[in-house]
Design goal:
37% strand; eight-stranded mixed β-sheet; 3 helices; 202 residues; five-stranded mixed β-sheet; mainly beta; 2,3-Dihydroxybiphenyl 1,2-Dioxygenase, domain 1
Length: 202
């Protein structure tokens, strides 16, 4: 079933502290925005903004804070290293949340309100939903997002989002994020592996 009211707002990639591998994107010509810290959540990030999308490189700044009462349910600390998926996908839309969820409204970040997929497992991306009618300008626009996973279970949130056309998915591969800009018409490919599990096609 198609879900036309949904769009991908941003994707985060769990990286090592300070996200030094993000320098590879700058060397490839992508412009970095202002970094950010998430008080009370124990994480910080470097960000790259596009017209309809943000790519976020997230690291664990304070594990005790990430395991604290406010952020414990996110289980972010478990996504750094090991077999867990290092990705999180944040959708935006004006309709209802497309999965069973719990609300994340951290008092340390006023104005942030996310619906977190309650049934998403650690071997698939973390899935979040935010209500927003923000559009895009069409310049440097992301036109496709594909998530690679070693295994995508039937009935999982990731499988449901793939079947609804929100993302593409590749099963039986290492964890990988593939982004397509402008329909990939220019034929350019930036493969940032092995430093980052990210491929950008333009």
């Amino acid at each position: 079933m198609a879900l036309p009211h949904l769009a991908i707002d941003h994707v985060f990639v769990c990286t090592e502290r300070g996200a030094p591998a993000a320098e590879l994107l700058k060397q490839a010509g992508f412009t970095e925005g202002i970094p950010n810290r998430h008080p009370g959540q124990g994480t910080a990030c470097r960000r790259f903004f596009f017209s309809n999308f943000m790519l976020e490189f997230l690291w664990l700044e304070d594990e005790a804070e990430a395991r604290g009462e406010q952020a414990r349910g996110l289980r972010l600390w478990e996504r750094f290293g090991g077999p867990a998926s290092p990705f999180g996908v944040i959708l935006r839309g004006s309709g209802p949340c497309p999965w069973l969820s719990w609300s994340y409204k951290p008092p340390t970040m006023p104005g942030l309100e996310l619906e977190i997929a309650a049934d998403a497992e650690l071997d698939e991306p973390m899935w979040c939903y935010m209500r927003s009618d923000r559009g895009s300008t069409g310049v440097h626009e992301v036109t496709g997002v594909v998530i690679g996973c070693p295994f995508v279970k039937a009935g999982s949130v990731t499988r449901a989002m793939a079947e609804s056309g929100v993302i593409g998915v590749r099963s039986g591969v290492d964890h990988l994020l593939e982004l397509e800009f402008g329909g990939g018409l220019r034929g350019t490919v930036h493969d940032f592996r092995p430093e980052l599990p990210v491929v950008i096609r333009g």
